[in-house]
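[Automated response] Your request has been received and processed.

Submitted sequence:
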Amino acid sequence: MGWSIGFDTRWDRDIGYGVPAYCDFPRCMAEIDRGLSYVCCDEQPHGGDGCGLYFCSKHHIWRGGKCSRCRNYRPPFKPTPDHPEWIAHKLTDESWAEWRAENPDWVSRNSPTA
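Generated structure:
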């Protein structure tokens, strides 16, 4: 199994190094991906025993690989919304056609005309 694209049921969103994203630290607009190198808790899938959110190098604490909230035993930050580039890809790329047909509510909520 590759780590390009997957799904995290905890946060109800796509993950993987193929998924462009913003850092999950509040108000940080750093562009990253949702690959293992950015996940809280030392590159463990879905965050291991961390929150499973994704942080840029400025907000990812490398010693122990935990974000500031997990390191201080606090509740996780609110996840950032999907990156517009990722939404556009899912709405238009042929490889997602079957998924779009199976998820019309998501398509309706995220279409530019919505």
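Summary generated for your ticket: The chain has two domains: 6-80, 83-114. The first strand starts at residue 6 and ends at 8.
If you did not submit this request, please reply to this message.
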